[in-house]
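not sure who needs this but someone in the group chat was asking about 3-isopropylmalate dehydrogenase from Lacticaseibacillus baoqingensis so here u go. i didnt clean anything up, its just raw.
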Amino acid sequence: MTHHIAVLAGDYIGPEIMASALAVLQHAAAKYDFDYETTAYPFGGAAIDACGEPLPQATIDGAKAADAILLAAIGGPKWDAAPKRPEAGLLAIRQALQLYANIRPTKVSDAQIDASPIKPEIVAGTDFVIARELTSGAYFGKPRELAADHAIDTMYYSQAEVERIMNTGFQLAMQRKQHVTIVDKSNVLATSKFWRATAERIAKRFPKVSVDYRYIDATTMAIMTAPTAFDVIITANLFGDILSDEAAQITGSIGTIPSMSAGASGPNLYEPIHGSAPDIAGKGIANPIAMIKSVAMMAQYSFQANAMAQAIEAACDAVIAAGITTPDLGGSATNQDVTDAIIARI
Ligand code: NAD
Ligand code: IPM
Ligand code: MN
């Protein structure tokens, strides 16, 4: 059976890391007998340039019809003042496909300990995931207004929206270390009080899972001082965005962290958590590992091609262990060197 993959390369380093990921996929697929075809669609700033829209209808239709979606990164200074920004396309595709659960892993392999800015004895063994709510909260609440003398954003959550991300997070914990941390600001925000009360109710359905509750501000410290205390963090859209970049940093580079965005039905979307890195675009030094590990996540979760997924993951870790790294991880290799080295190890 042929697996149909929609490819959205996007902007700045997007096409560079997507080319790496597709080269790795092509090699791994031949080795593991994985039958697939890809279709590329315009998205983000590239789509604004081509047709005035960050998320053209043909891209939504193609994404919906695919079995999985690979996305690199969008946005950048070229469109920061444009009437429609690339970021609006990203939010729109997440909403159009109702991809409410964004899973962002933070794992520090032994090979990566030296790249971490945190002391080895603190960071060793770090292995947690952030389950970030992705289609509601401050990103989507109405009213939203930007006037000359004031501005409004609304942080809204319905019961169903909170329950479904809680269920995702608790189910994930059941397959892992059976520990959940609910991260909120329930000492201040109504949505966070609601979030915490919902968590307490859902937790009763998962008696094997231990739960702790932390405030977002204190959690940003704990990620630095005691990262091994976490297994699954369940948090709201905005908090999860911020926390996942911080968590990425303790692994040494945001350039290694993939993600999966899933809904109740339809294709999942896989993308690095980082952006389009305009500061390094065109130099051939973007770390392709987050994008390549996104391919591994796709193989595992959308296609149950577990052997292929593990081979890709292991090759990425082996290349880091061998010191073949781009400058963000302290090395002097190019994107192409890293890609070739990964392919050679699959
Ligand atoms: P960024 O994640 O693009 O970059 C932050 C820093 O990390 C930069 O120094 C960059 O060089 C570095 N970095 C990121 N990815 C890297 C990689 N693969 N290899 C090596 N270094 C890497 O964040 P930003 O600079 O705040 O945003 C740039 C643009 O990307 C903005 O337009 C933003 O809105 C957009 N953005 C898009 C996504 C997405 O497409 N999902 C995510 C985040 C930001
Ligand atoms: C991410 C990005 C996006 C977000 C932006 C570009 C809209 O930062 O995927 O983490 O905030 O969700
Ligand atoms: Mn982000």
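also The chain has two domains: 1-99+258-346, 127-249. if thats useful
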